[in-house]
Amino acid sequence: MAQGAVVRNAAQADRDEARAPRTRPIDMEHLANQCLGDENLGLEVLRMFDGTIAGYFGRLRLATAFDELAAHLHTIKGAAAGVGARGVADLARALEDDLRAGRPLKPERIDDLGMAVEEVRSFIAGLVAADEAE
């Protein structure tokens, strides 16, 4: 299988399961559309996203000031939406909305975001490992 075929196969699986509930933490069809069908680019975008999401979530955990929290949540939300990690984007958006409304960020909700981030990172690691095994 050619490099990037893992991304294409995952995108095809998403299309095949269009009527079934989503079980993948990344919408691979969305990612393929964002990358204009370039499978190698899609995999590279996921590699970069993995580092970005890990870094910004780590910074979010350490942040205490409103501006820091807002910036990190906004970055996580945008990056996740860009690659199709809708669960992460939705959780970050909800936390961002709470923050902007003056509501305290509940540690449990940040933990929920952390679990979603780890699920996405694990999924990416699986795609990268499968691609490297080819």
TrEMBL record:
Residues 34-128 form the HPt domain. Keywords: Two-component regulatory system. SUPFAM superfamilies: Histidine-containing phosphotransfer domain, HPT domain (SSF47226). InterPro entries: HPT_dom_sf, Sig_transdc_His_kin_Hpt_dom. Residues 1-24 are annotated as: Disordered. Residues 13-24 have a biased composition (Basic and acidic residues). Transmembrane segments: none annotated. This is Hpt domain-containing protein.
